[in-house]
Amino acid sequence: MPVTEYLERNAKLYPDEVALVELNPDEPDKRRTSWKEFDLIQPSRFSPYRREITWSVFDEKANRFANMLLSRGIKKGDKVAILMYNCLEWLPIYFGVLKTGAIAVPFNFRYDADEILYCTELAEVDVMVFGPEFVGRIETNAERLMKGRLLIYYGESCPEFAEDYYELVADSSSRTPGIALSEEDYGAIYFSSGTTGFPKAILHKHQSLTQAAEMEQKHHSTGRNDNFLCIPPLYHTGAKFHWMGSLVAASKAVLLKGTSPRTILETVSNEHCTIVWLLVPWAQDLLDALDRGDLKLADYDLKNWRMMHIGAQPVPPSLIRRWKEYFPNHEYDTNYGLSESTGPGCVHLGVENIHKVGAIGVPGYRWECKIVDENGEVVSQGDVGELCVKGPGVMTCYYRNPEATAEVLKDGWLFTGDMAMQDEDGFIFLVDRKKDVIVSGGENIYPVQIEDFIRRFDKVKDVAVIGLSDRRLGEKTAAIIEIKEGMECTKEEIEEFCQGLARYKRPKEIIFATIPRNATGKIEKPKLRKIYGADMLVAKENNA
After folding, report:
1. How buried is 179 (Cβ within 10 angstroms: 0-12 exposed, 13-18 middle, 19+ buried)?
2. DSSP SS3 for 147
3. Which terminal Cβ of the chain has fewer Cβ within 10 Å, N or C?
4. Complete DSSP assignment for 64-109
5. pLDDT bracket for residue 313 (50, 70, 90)
6. Residue 514 pairs with which residues in a beta bridge?
7. Model confidence band, residue 206 (pLDDT cutoffs 50, 70, 90)
8. Within a 10 A sphere around the Cβ of 465, how many other Cβ atoms?
9. If you write DSSP's letter for every residue of 7-32 in order, what string do you get?
10. Which pLDDT band holds residue 468 (cuts at 50, 70, 90)?
11. Residue 33: helix, strand or coil by DSSP?
12. How far apart are CA 36 and CA 299, in angstroms?
């Protein structure tokens, strides 16, 4: 069934129960004075920056937005982009789009003006909803963006080139629009991370959205009494579909604007959160703050917190070992996925398999996996090959890009571009991105293996290993290392520690710097290659 039916079910069965809470510690009370009578969001009595909505209000707001779109001629197959920071309105707007039969198109809030224009035209967007933070970027190309499109502004002081969200939905009906939907209808377009150029548009049917929601609830046994803490951006499949486990379970979730260790612990404590999804940097920061004594667990009420899970990037086993020292009773899970597979979960570890920390896990609910060589043949157990996945969450295609689609979709299998191996127990271990493999002197070197090793050094906060051009070897390994706050470290210390690696895997260059990660926690290796690869090559040429 379409995922919208879960929202409508919750509104009928649990109308007065809280569905979503928004916490914004950095901007208390900022929007209070501009709320309109028709806006059903009510300020909570607990805190000046805390807002909440019930399931019935959630559904009513989605219906208002849907009926407004329908009144403006939006129909099945049209595209509605959402360019907003996380807020209490984000999900009702998203579900409002789905209820019309239109296709929801979430935009990365880090896009610059040209990327916004590019993705708008690539996805053939008919409507764009955007927040106040993006006025300047929209205005840059407003003339082209306005052609044949409705621009809707959510916030105070609506710009002249857009229409006001509040005014548009003020008189719209709060009744379900009644558009017939099936799992075969198109539901969403998500964009690839764009690490090799401008993003590709990934088209999914409603079947994918429902699969992701039901899988998340099943994988983490999300129940009516759970409370999910969601911190990552909702435009990303990971955040949204992890939250959808709460939708299926009809349980509360908290949208937190803030990633500091203190803010996370305070929120878990005050809101009685039970499930928390963290990115690797946030988990590392929290553990480092506990190590330094900046925070003390005894100062917080954490008895309800039952699970911590991580996704979006490889998880260092050393991080989980440290985590279990502070939180020995926590369940732990990790999830693997791509936007092309509707986000996380096509492979997942499972809370019962913590003894396999380091693996990404086994095929997820309703998924199949295989590991193949360059000819598409399944490799022997223990050998490295490309991970392929197959299931009801695989994308339909890269929208308007049949060539790219043909490269990754073959007989229903999605070729992920990730190199992996399977152990004797059937658990899959991610080795590296296919494009990130370093070929040095004829040897294949997998950066993730080196990164996991270096992270064991107690002074290291984060590390990224990349390949740099080398006249003799073709490529050589370079380790960019971020040291923990308040510590000092020398190259000699790192080199001594790396004696534990096979000689050909030892980094030939060691660089101390901050590791750039994107909004979903993934290391931005193309940026590192551009910074250090180009600079070093120029230096070498100048010294030659």
Report:
1. middle
2. coil
3. C
4. HHHHHHHHTT--TT-EEEEE--S-TTHHHHHHHHHHHTPEEEE--T
5. low
6. none
7. very high
8. 28
9. HHHHHHHSTTSEEEEEE-TTSTTTTG
10. confident
11. helix
12. 39
**Phi, then psi, of 389 in degrees rounded to 5:** -130, 155
Q: Do strands 252-256 and 413-422 pair parallel, antiparallel, or not at all (unpaired)?
A: unpaired
Which is it for strands 201-205 and 186-191: parallel, antiparallel or unpaired? antiparallel
Residue 129 domain flag: yes
Better-predicted residue by pLDDT, 543 or 465: 465
- The alpha-carbon radius of gyration of the chain (Å, integer) is 24
Last residue of a domain, one of 213, 228, 243: 228
Domain residues for the domain of 455 are: 439-543
Confidence of residue 343 (pLDDT cuts 50, 70, 90): confident
126: nearest Cα among 149, 152, 95: 149
H helices, E strands: number in the chain: 17, 28
What CATH number has the domain bearing residue 455?
Answer: 3.30.300.30
Tokens in use for 408? 């990754």
- The number of domains in the chain is 2
Bigger pLDDT: 468 vs 37: 468
Predicted confidence at residue 499, as pLDDT, reads 92
Q: What angle do CA 240, 52, 344 make, to 5 degrees?
A: 10
The C-alpha torsion from 425 through 431 and 434 to 437, rounded to 10°, is -150
Residue 389 belongs to a domain: no
Q: Where are the alpha helices (DSSP H) in 250-316?
A: 261-271, 280-292
Question: Is the whole-model pTM more than 0.85?
Answer: no
Residue 418 lies in a domain: no
Task: Evaluate whether 312 touches 344 at the Cβ level (below 8 Å).
Answer: yes
Residue 34: which CATH number? 3.40.50.12780
Domain end marker among 182, 205, 228: 228
Sheet-wide strand order for 397-398: 163-164, 150-153, 127-130, 79-83, 103-106, 186-191, 201-205, 397-398
Residue 98: CB partners within 8 Å, gap ≥ 6? 2, 3, 4, 104, 181, 187, 188, 206, 209
As a whole number of angstroms, the longest Cα–Cα distance in the chain is 74
Position 34 in a domain: yes
Indicate the DSSP class of residue 442: T
Q: Which two tokens stand for residue 487?
A: 């510590």
